[in-house]
Write a structure and sequence with these properties.
Strand order of the largest sheet: 11-10-16-17-18-19
Helix content: 40-55%
Strand content: 5-15%
Number of strands: 19
Distance between the termini: 53 Å
Number of helices: 28
Length: 784
């Protein structure tokens, strides 16, 4: 049995790497999540030393921002003076340029190569035709049974290899002190952070592949250190000398903060000049329809255009729509998480056939069976050794025409496929069961259904209902894109949000739920209000409405809305793609082009999270920079809804923001590198070229407009909440994790206090606040 202190050390050391999420469920999360209990400046310093990574924007990025006016001259000048830098701004930009960074030589390259070879074989999830033997025995035992055949290692006999992972660790580490063991574990886990991050993911999430073929960080370290010992690779890293203050590094921090403060000032200027002044003057007595979109930054553009084309109201709500669920796909039978990764799934949602639709469902099932067989057959023919050469020769002409049509006519090649994928939602209805073992799996208590629906209205500050209310999830469609799931809904664990939207609509339509809301909470939903699920395709800006259960009485209103949403698509794509005429054809071409490196920009340029009523931002073009969460402080008298927003969406948006930040400042270490040289491995990840570390983040094309020019601005998230400051102060006192994120400057918090004439203050460490009108960080704090 392994020493418990070893296990504790491995657990602690694993904080040096974040989870690496699989391609089919690519969640954007903070790669430095294990360091969030440290100040941002100290965390990135530690990571730079351990991983050899870059963690602050480059000199060229700062120069680009300064020349474009994104760093205000007055702000940067005052911050420089306060930091003891008294030369000109240009002088210090040149100073940043003077720092030459060199990548450290990898003394363990051979060891890394050997480990990647074994990890690729063992962790494969169905891509390889031939499986590594003995996988069911776990990584260490499977490796041990075959390691004697690896000439790169050079074991003389099976008896030379320890029989268990625990004995292997004891044998290699027995002579090292506890402090040295900790350094060894951190060093070797950090050597291949992508692969070890994926082991961490499989271990923590206990995936189906993990249940069948077990691999743990303990086993990985046992194999790695055993191999290192045999090939005489470095086991104990040299102790890092403590470095003093670095003037260049201090300059980088100052320029980053000036960039962030400039962005905050610009946002507040827009809010004060347009948003606050507009207030609720434009509110109407009743809207023709209301649409609830995800808080995703891509929803900001579509919401503006929806509000322009008709008498419509829009809301922002986290895209899993408050339902902590897993969803079983009707087409392939696979169940995947469809709620934030930090939330445990309480429900299992699957499809049930609508009355009278059995015949149509059978057609959909047969179509899927044919499609599955064809895909299976083609894959087997290409990959099986006996048929591969003959098949490729015989099918060459067919594939030639296929490649030509996919290149020259991408939209015509792919668009019918996407339409077919949605057919089952016209003949099925979502059904929700509990994942709990304490209750009957065939039913959900009415109280829970009521709670889900009420929470949606409480969090968004709902006061009235239109005849049509759409819950609009979002998804993305792209061809030949391993990172396709990164463009889906982050709040749904990189799944499309339409399943959650349809489920919430169904719950809100239940008579027993409406009666309870009316009788218990005086929340009166009119009899003529119908809730409908929908999906916003973020690559084409098409909004598909799932209207299979909408009564005939609403057909006219629904048809008018559908026609207006077609206009919205024209306007939104035109703005997003910068075309003078309709942008729809261009969007379809980008969406379906198999050679397109960036079918859309995803959440690039995210920088802010605004929590408040739509009246604050309705008159403003926020240029897709902000997550928008609807919230009405007057209806949330106890602050419970706001506390839920800060504990949930605020934390998740911080994850997303930091993922984009680090993928931008060092795309090789924290991103995915160039898509051009990607190779998919094991179905779950990509590597550059023919091997190396598993890539952990977004590809270069998702954050850069060219190899050397940024598209995403690497800024920490600025959260702006309209609510009484005292209410927010109480929430921070109760939730140390939120206070820690703020004190350690992983995010900024600005508060617009409606009880103080919407005066805006910014949080400073220790529950202090300063007036944001000052461009200096050194002014006296406002008493708490």
């Amino acid at each position: 049995m392994i020493n418990q202190s070893f296990l504790n050390s491995i657990e602690q050391a694993s904080n040096v790497v974040g989870k690496t999420w699989p391609l089919y469920s690519f969640v954007t999360s903070n790669p430095l999540v294990g360091y969030e209990n440290m100040h941002f400046a100290e965390a990135i310093k530690s990571v730079e030393q351990l991983l050899g990574a870059t963690t602050l924007p480059s000199a060229s990025a700062f120069r680009q921002a300064f020349e474009q006016g994104e760093i205000d001259q007055d702000i940067i000048y005052k911050l420089l003076v306060e930091g003891g830098f008294n030369e000109t701004i240009e002088f210090y930009i040149n100073q940043l340029n003077s720092e030459v960074t060199t990548k450290a030589f990898n003394e363990n390259h051979k060891l890394d190569r050997i480990m990647v070879k074994w990890l690729s074989a063992f962790m494969d999830e169905g891509l390889a035709e031939w499986e590594m033997p003995h996988k069911e025995e776990g990584f260490f035992k499977s490796w041990r049974s075959l390691a004697i055949y690896d000439n790169e290692i050079g074991f003389k006999s099976l008896g030379a290899i320890p029989k268990t992972s625990s004995s292997a660790l004891q044998e290699v580490l027995g002579k090292h002190s506890a402090e040295e063991r900790q350094r060894i574990f951190e060093y070797h886990l950090g050597a291949l952070p992508g692969w070890t991050g994926y082991i961490k993911f499989r271990e923590k999430d206990n995936t189906l592949w993990q249940q069948a073929y077990r691999i743990t960080l303990e086993e990985y370290l046992a194999v790695r250190l055993t191999v290192a010992d045999v090939i005489k690779a470095q086991i104990l890293p040299e102790k890092q000398a403590l470095t003093g203050e670095n003037p260049i590094r201090n300059l980088q921090h100052i320029f980053l903060k000036a960039w962030e403060k400039t962005w905050q000032a610009s946002m507040l200027t827009k809010l004060k000049q347009q948003g606050i002044d507009a207030g609720s003057k434009n509110a109407v007595d009743k809207y023709d329809a209301q649409l609830v979109f995800c808080i995703d930054t891509r929803s900001e553009l579509i919401r503006r255009h929806v509000e322009k084309v008709g008498n419509y109201e829009t809301f922002g709500y986290a895209g899993f729509f408050g339902i902590a669920m897993d969803y079983t796909n009707f087409e392939d039978g696979l169940s995947r998480k469809s709620c934030p990764p930090i939330v445990g799934s309480a429900y299992q949602v699957s499809e049930s056939v609508l009355k009278g639709k059995t015949g149509e469902v059978e057609k959909v099932i047969k179509r899927n069976e044919r499609k599955t067989f064809v895909n299976y057959f083609l894959t087997r023919m290409k990959n099986m050794l006996p048929s591969a050469f003959g098949y490729v020769e015989g099918a060459g002409v067919f594939y030639g025409f296929s490649l030509l049509s996919r290149t020259l006519l991408p939209a015509k090649t792919y668009s019918p496929e996407r339409r077919n994928q949605l057919d089952y939602e016209n003949v099925c209805s979502p059904e929700m069961n509990s994942t709990s073992t304490d209750i009957n799996h065939s039913s959900i208590p009415l109280e829970e259904k009521i709670g889900i629906v009420k929470s949606a209205f409480d969090l968004t500050g709902w006061t009235q209902f239109s005849p049509l209310v759409l819950f609009v999830g979002h998804g993305s469609h792209s061809a030949n894109n391993p990172f396709g799931s990164s463009l889906d809904c982050g709040a749904c664990a990189a799944s499309p949000g339409r399943h959650n939207a349809r489920m919430l609509a169904k719950l809100a339509n239940l008579p027993e739920v409406r009666n309870a809301l009316r009788n218990r909470y005086q929340l009166d939903i009119p009899a003529d209000t119908i809730f409908i699920g929908a999906e916003h395709n973020t690559t084409t800006d098409e909004i598909v409405i799932f209207d299979s259960e909408v009564p005939d009485s609403h057909a006219t209103k629904l048809d008018a809305l559908i026609q207006n949403l077609k206009k919205v698509q024209e306007m939104a794509t035109q703005e997003r793609l910068g075309t003078r005429s309709s942008g729809v054809p261009a969007a379809h071409k980008k969406t379906n082009n198999w050679a397109e490196t960036r079918p859309e920009w995803g959440l690039a340029k995210n920088a802010g999270f605004i929590v408040g009523p739509r009246s604050l931002t309705k008159q403003i073009n926020l240029e897709g920079n902000c997550f928008l969460q609807s919230y009405n402080w007057e209806l949330d008298t106890e602050g419970k809804a706001l506390e839920g927003i800060m504990q949930g969406p605020m934390v998740v948006t911080q994850w997303i923001n930091n993922h984009y930040y680090f993928a931008t400042v060092d795309n090789e270490k924290f991103g995915g590198g160039s898509k051009i040289t990607h190779n998919v491995t094991g179905r779950f990840g990509v590597v550059q070229g023919n091997g190396g570390d598993l890539k952990i983040g977004l590809p270069l094309q998702s954050v850069n407009s060219s190899d050397d020019r940024l598209y995403h601005k690497p800024l920490r998230l600025s959260v702006m909440i309209q609510a009484p400051k005292d209410r927010i102060q109480d929430i921070l006192v109760r939730n140390e994790n939120l206070k820690s994120l703020l004190d350690n400057e992983w995010i900024y918090l600005l508060v617009m206090d409606p009880t103080q004439e919407n005066e805006v203050v910014i949080y400073k460490k220790g529950l202090n606040w300063i007036n944001t009108l000052s461009k200096s960080d050194t002014m006296e704090t406002i008493n708490s």
